[in-house]
C-alpha cells in the first residue's frame, strides 16, 4: 500500500471549480455597510481588482487559472495525498484515512493557493501594494511570499497576541519583504479607536481587517486582500479538492466523508467544494462533509445565520453568514486562524441547507489528537489543522465500533513548526479550555445589525 | 515600602493532625498527651529565614506566640506589642490583632490553620490584609500561602494590591465523626499574588481582578435582565454582590439571596425558604463562585443549597463564576453536595464564567478524587 499518491506537475488543475454554479438558488448578495443596499462592483473597486470582483459574483462553473499563477503554484503543487496508514493502525480502525498535505508550500500552509492568484490580479491592474490582516500569521506570510513573486509591496496587520506569540511568522514576512504591524495599531482610525477603548487588547482578526481595509481605501496605489471567507478565495482553494479527487481516483476511491477545520472557511472550502458540487448535482448524494471549529469560537455550531459585518468596525460589506456578532472577540486560543466571528457565506449556506454539518472541540482534546498524529504520521501539524484531525480520529473510532470501512478525506492544511510554544503549554498541562457561553449570551442580548 | 507588619503564631496549630485528632480546637491537652509537638514555631522560623532582607520591622507577641521564633531565626527587627500569660487562646489571637491595628500595621501575618484564620479575621475586622503561613490541620480558607517560603516571597514582593479570599472552617465535632462540613465565616483581604495569572493582557478577560469581577457581573446582570421570569439564587461573594448592585439591590455578603426580574425576593435564605420560593417558580438558576483554596463549587460553605434544592433547580442551571485570578489559585474544582449520585450528575467538567461573554471549561473532581489529590 502506497504512503502517498502523487500527480505530475502537468496534471495540476487548469481551472478552478466555482460551486456557486451548482447552488439550487443564488447566494444572498453582500449589502453595503452604510446603505444596506446591494453592493455594486463599483463599491468594491476601491479595495479589490476587477477580475476578483468578477470571480466573487461569477455564475460560471469553471474559471481558468492563469498560466503565470500555475507556474508559481508548481513550486509545491500538486501537493501529495497521503494514506494515513500509521494513524489507522494506532486507532485500530477499519476506516481508510486520506489527507491532502498543504504544509509543503513555502509558507507552510494552503494559504498561498489564493495569495498567488490575488497578487497576480492586483499586479495586472497596476496596483503597487497590498494591505491585509493576519491572525496566526499564516495568511500574512503567504501574501508576503506571493507579493514578493510579483514585486509588489505588502503591509500586514497582525493580530497583536499572535505578533507576540509567533515572532517567527513575522520574521518570515519581513524576509519576503513585507511590512508587519501589530494590530490594533496607531496607523489607522479603526486601530486608534480600539486602543482608546481597550489599551491592553490582544486584538482580533475582525479588528485587523478593519485596519487593512482602511489602509487600502485611503491609499490610491493600494488594494486590500482577504485570506479567507470570500467566494473568490474559496474558489482559488478548490485546487486542493480537485487534486484530491484525481488522486483518489488513481486508487479507485471516493470519500464517504470530507473533513476540514474552519476559521473563515477557505481551506475547508478548498478540500470540500468539489465534493459538495457532486452532492448538489446528485452525482454523489451520500458524501458527508464536516466542518470543525473551536468551542471557544463556535460560529457554525452556535452562531446565528444572518447578515453581519466582516470586521469589528463595520467597514466591510454585510455578508449573509453564521456569526457570533461582529463585536465578538474570541478567547486567545492557540489556533489563532480559527478566531473569527463569522464564516464564509458559501460554507454558511451549505451548513444552513444541510449539505454540510459542523462540530466543535476544545483545545486540550485537539492537541491530544495532534500529538497522536505526530507520533503516527510524523507531521507536527498546526493547531488549526489539529481540529480537523480530532474530528477524523472521532469518526475513525466510530468506524471501529460499527466496523464500517469508511473512506475519510481531510485537509492537512499546514505544519505547526511555528506553534511549538502552544504544544509546549499543552505538554505542561497549562492549556485552558475556553468556551463560548451561548445559552447565557442568547439570554442577555441581541447585538447584530438589523437588516430588513 | 511597608512601615511595619504584625506577626502572630498560634503555638498549638497543627498539633492535632499528627496525632489523629483532625483539629486542635479545645483539645490541646489531649494533643500534648498524645505526644504532639507544635509545628507552627518551626514554620515561622522557616518564614523568617526565607525573607530576602531583614529590614522589615515586625510587631509581634511574647513567647511562643511570636518572639520565640524571632530569637531562633536570629531576626532582630521585632518589637513585642502584645503579651499573654498561661496558655494562648483564641481570645489572645483576637486581642493581638486589635493591638496590631492600633499600631498601624499594613499586613497581619499569622501562622496557624483555619481556626486561627477565623480568629484573625474577627480580630482584625476584615479591612487590614492578612496572610497565613500554613501550619494548621485544616486549611480550607483561601488566605494561606502554599509554604512558609512562598509567604516570605509574597511579603517581600508585595506592592500593596489586595484580593479577596474566603475564610472557611470545618465543624470539628462533625469532622471527627467523619463528616466534612465547612462553613463560610467571611471574606478577608489578602496580598494579591503577582505573576500568578499567566499572560492575561487580553480584552476577553480582564487582567486585574476588580475589572474581571465587573465584567462577570455585567454579563450576568444582562442575563438576569433578559430572563425576567427566572428566579436567581445568588451565592456568597463580592462578584454576586456586584451583580445585585447592578439592580440597586443590597445583597447579603455571606448568604444566598433570591433575585427575579431585577427585584430582591429573598435575603439570606435558608434551605426551607429557598424550597418555598422554588415551589412558586418554573425556572431557577443558582449563581455561585468556588470557595476557598480547594475550589468547592457547592456543598462546602453553602449548606443552604441542599441536594433537594439542586435537584429542583437542575444541575444544568448551576452557573459557576470565577475571575481568572481566582481560578489560577484553584487548580481543581469539586462539588460535594452530600449526595454522591447528584455529584456525579455534574459530570467530569464544569463551565466557569470568567469574563464578559467568556467561559472556561474546568475539570470537576468528585469528593473522593479531590480528597486524594489535595487534602493536606
Describe the model:
The complex is a heterodimer of chains A (452) and B (376). With 452 residues, chain A is of the alpha/beta class. Chain A folds into 2 domains: 68-108 and 237-444, Rossmann fold (3-Layer(aba) Sandwich), CATH 3.40.50; 112-226, Rossmann fold (3-Layer(aba) Sandwich), CATH 3.40.50.1100. Chain A is built from 18 helices and 16 strands. Chain A has a 7-stranded mixed β-sheet with strand order 1-4-5-15-10-11-14, with helices on both faces. In chain A, strand 10, helix 12 (266-280) and strand 11 (288-294) form a beta-alpha-beta unit. In chain A, helix 9 (189-197) runs antiparallel to helix 10. Chain A is globular, with a radius of gyration of 20 Å. In chain A, 60% of the residues are buried. The model of chain A has no long low-confidence stretch (mean pLDDT 93). With 376 residues, chain B is α/β, with parallel strands linked by helices. Chain B folds into 2 domains: 4-191, Rossmann fold (3-Layer(aba) Sandwich); 209-374, no CATH class. Chain B has 15 helices and 16 strands. Chain B has a 9-stranded mixed β-sheet, sandwiched between helices. The model of chain B is unreliable at 195-204 (pLDDT under 50). Chain A binds chain B through residues 161, 198, 200-202, 295, 328-332, 362, 430, 432-437, 440-441, 443-445, and chain B through 198, 201-205, 207, 219-220, 222-223, 225-227, 319, 349, 351, 353, 357-362. Strand 16 of chain A pairs antiparallel with strand 16 (358-365) of chain B, so a sheet runs across the interface.
Amino acid at each position: 500500500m502506497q504512503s502517498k499518491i502523487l500527480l505530475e506537475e502537468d496534471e495540476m488543475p487548469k481551472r478552478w471549480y466555482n460551486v456557486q454554479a451548482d447552488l439550487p438558488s443564488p447566494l444572498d448578495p453582500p449589502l453595503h455597510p452604510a446603505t444596506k443596499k446591494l453592493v455594486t462592483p463599483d463599491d468594491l473597486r476601491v479595495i479589490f481588482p476587477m477580475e476578483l470582483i468578477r470571480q466573487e459574483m461569477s455564475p460560471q462553473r469553471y474559471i481558468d487559472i492563469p498560466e503565470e499563477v500555475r507556474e508559481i503554484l508548481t513550486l509545491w503543487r500538486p501537493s501529495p495525498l497521503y494514506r494515513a496508514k500509521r494513524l489507522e493502525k494506532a486507532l485500530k480502525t477499519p476506516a481508510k484515512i486520506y489527507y491532502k498535505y498543504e504544509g509543503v508550500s513555502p509558507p507552510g500552509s494552503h494559504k498561498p493557493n489564493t495569495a498567488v492568484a490575488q497578487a497576480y490580479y492586483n499586479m495586472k491592474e497596476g496596483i503597487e501594494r497590498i494591505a491585509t490582516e493576519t491572525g496566526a500569521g499564516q495568511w500574512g506570510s503567504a501574501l508576503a511570499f506571493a507579493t514578493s513573486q510579483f514585486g509588489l509591496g505588502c503591509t500586514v496587520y497582525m493580530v497583536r497576541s499572535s505578533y507576540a506569540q509567533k515572532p517567527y511568522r513575522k520574521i518570515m514576512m519581513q524576509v519576503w519583504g513585507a511590512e508587519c504591524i501589530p494590530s490594533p495599531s496607531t496607523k489607522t482610525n479603526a486601530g486608534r479607536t480600539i486602543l482608546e477603548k481597550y489599551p491592553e487588547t490582544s486584538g482580533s482578526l475582525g479588528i485587523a481587517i478593519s485596519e487593512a481595509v482602511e489602509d487600502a481605501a485611503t491609499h490610491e496605489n493600494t488594494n486590500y486582500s482577504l485570506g479567507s471567507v470570500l467566494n473568490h478565495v474559496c474558489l482559488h482553494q478548490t485546487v486542493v479538492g480537485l487534486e484530491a479527487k484525481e488522486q483518489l481516483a488513481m486508487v479507485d476511491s471516493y470519500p464517504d466523508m470530507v473533513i476540514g477545520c474552519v476559521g473563515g472557511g477557505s481551506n475547508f472550502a478548498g478540500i470540500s467544494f468539489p465534493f459538495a458540487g457532486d452532492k448538489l448535482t446528485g452525482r454523489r448524494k451520500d458524501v458527508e462533509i464536516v466542518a470543525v471549529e473551536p468551542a471557544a469560537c463556535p460560529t457554525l455550531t452556535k452562531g446565528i445565520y444572518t447578515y453581519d459585518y466582516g470586521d469589528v468596525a463595520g467597514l466591510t460589506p454585510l455578508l449573509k453568514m453564521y456569526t457570533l456578532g461582529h463585536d465578538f472577540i474570541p478567547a486567545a486560543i492557540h489556533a489563532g486562524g480559527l478566531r473569527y466571528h463569522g464564516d464564509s457565506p458559501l460554507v454558511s449556506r451549505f451548513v444552513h441547507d444541510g449539505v454540510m454539518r459542523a462540530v466543535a472541540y476544545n483545545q486540550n482534546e485537539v492537541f491530544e489528537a495532534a500529538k497522536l498524529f505526530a507520533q503516527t504520521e510524523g507531521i507536527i501539524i498546526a493547531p488549526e489543522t489539529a481540529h480537523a484531525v480530532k474530528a477524523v480520529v472521532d469518526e475513525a473510532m466510530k468506524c471501529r465500533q460499527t466496523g464500517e470501512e469508511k473512506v475519510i478525506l481531510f485537509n492537512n492544511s499546514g505544519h505547526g513548526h511555528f506553534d511549538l510554544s502552544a504544544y509546549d503549554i499543552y505538554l505542561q498541562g497549562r492549556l485552558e479550555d475556553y468556551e463560548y457561553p451561548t445559552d447565557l449570551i442568547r439570554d442577555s442580548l441581541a447585538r447584530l445589525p438589523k437588516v430588513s | 515600602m511597608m512601615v511595619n507588619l504584625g506577626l502572630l503564631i498560634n503555638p498549638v496549630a497543627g498539633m492535632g493532625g499528627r496525632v489523629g485528632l483532625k483539629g486542635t480546637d479545645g483539645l490541646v491537652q489531649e494533643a500534648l498527651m498524645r505526644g504532639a509537638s507544635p509545628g507552627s514555631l518551626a514554620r515561622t522560623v522557616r518564614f523568617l529565614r526565607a525573607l530576602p532582607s531583614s529590614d522589615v520591622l515586625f510587631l509581634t507577641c511574647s513567647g511562643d506566640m511570636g518572639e520565640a521564633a524571632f530569637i531562633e531565626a536570629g531576626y532582630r527587627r521585632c518589637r513585642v506589642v502584645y503579651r499573654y500569660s498561661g496558655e494562648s487562646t483564641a481570645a489572645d489571637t483576637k486581642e493581638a490583632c486589635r493591638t496590631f491595628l492600633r499600631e498601624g500595621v499594613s499586613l497581619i501575618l499569622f501562622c496557624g490553620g483555619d481556626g486561627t484564620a477565623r480568629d484573625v479575621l474577627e480580630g482584625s475586622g476584615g479591612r487590614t490584609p492578612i496572610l497565613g503561613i500554613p501550619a494548621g490541620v485544616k486549611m480550607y480558607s483561601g488566605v494561606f500561602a502554599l509554604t512558609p517560603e512562598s509567604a516570605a516571597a509574597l511579603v517581600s514582593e508585595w506592592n500593596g494590591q489586595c484580593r479577596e479570599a474566603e475564610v472557611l472552617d470545618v465543624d470539628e465535632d462533625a469532622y471527627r465523626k467523619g463528616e466534612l462540613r465547612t462553613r463560610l465565616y467571611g471574606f478577608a483581604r489578602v496580598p494579591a499574588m503577582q505573576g500568578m495569572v499567566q499572560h492575561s493582557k487580553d480584552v476577553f478577560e480582564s487582567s486585574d481582578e476588580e475589572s474581571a469581577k465587573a465584567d462577570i457581573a455585567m454579563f450576568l446582570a444582562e442575563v438576569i435582565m433578559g430572563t425576567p421570569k427566572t428566579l436567581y439564587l445568588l451565592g456568597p461573594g463580592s462578584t454576586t454582590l456586584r451583580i445585585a448592585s447592578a439592580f440597586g439591590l443590597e445583597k447579603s455578603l455571606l448568604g444566598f439571596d433570591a433575585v427575579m426580574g431585577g427585584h430582591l425576593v429573598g435575603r439570606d435564605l435558608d434551605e426551607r425558604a429557598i424550597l418555598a420560593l422554588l415551589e412558586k417558580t418554573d425556572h431557577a438558576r443558582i449563581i455561585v463562585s468556588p470557595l476557598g483554596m480547594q475550589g468547592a463549587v457547592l456543598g462546602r460553605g453553602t449548606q443552604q443549597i441542599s441536594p433537594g434544592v439542586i435537584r429542583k433547580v437542575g444541575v444544568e442551571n448551576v452557573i459557576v463564576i470565577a475571575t481568572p485570578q481566582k481560578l489560577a489559585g484553584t487548580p481543581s474544582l469539586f462539588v460535594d453536595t452530600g449526595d454522591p449520585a447528584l455529584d456525579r450528575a455534574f459530570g467530569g467538567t464544569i463551565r466557569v464564567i470568567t469574563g464578559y461573554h467568556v467561559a472556561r471549561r474546568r475539570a470537576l473532581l468528585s469528593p473522593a478524587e479531590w480528597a486524594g489529590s489535595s487534602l493536606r
